[in-house]
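Listing S7. Sequence submitted for prediction.
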Amino acid sequence: MEPDVCAALPSFHAFTGCDSTSAFVRKGKRVPFKLLCNNQDAVDAFKNLGTTPNSISEAAAKDLEKFVCSMYGKPTFSDIDKLRYETFRSRYEVRTHQTTTCVQNGVDISLLPPCRSSLKKHCQRVNYQAYIWKHAHIPQLELPSPIGCGWKLDQEGHFTVDWIENALPQQFVEVLTESAHRESEVETLEYVEEDEIDNILDAVFDDDIEEQD
């Protein structure tokens, strides 16, 4: 085995799944390892992970993103978001007028490639874990907080995995927020109108009862 591949193994192991990092569903390690041995850019990216605990170079991030595209059978892709979209569309789009939008076995999102935001968080956790392994020879290693390195604190102050951020484009979020605000105003208006109608009906029926008495 080449020295560069050996140097890349700790990060590669964390990247494909270990005790502290998640794995890619149904991808395992054997096939990705074969891809790694034939991809010098990926070898260099994995070899350099763990140099610092909380930063990944932009070049390494792009090489890792392209490597994941290869893991999902698309070595010509370099944009993981486009691959995720194309994979979803090819599996679940309506192809004929007779075909319905209903998928017999449902849509298993776990089989799709991760989005770039999720992959970024995954790489941060891998980098942090690789840093620990690469400095295991230091008796008392002073580690920075894992917060911001793919982990975060929950409401109870416990460490939890930070899976994703900015899942939706900001413009789309603004459109949804504005739409929800308008719907809320309409519901409030309808509620007020219904209350006014109920008050009128109560007054009418009360008058009728008094007249009958």
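Caption to Listing S7: primary sequence and predicted structure tokens for the chain studied. The beta strands are 151-153, 159-161. The helical segments are 3-15, 30-37, 40-48, 58-71, 80-92, 116-134, 170-212.
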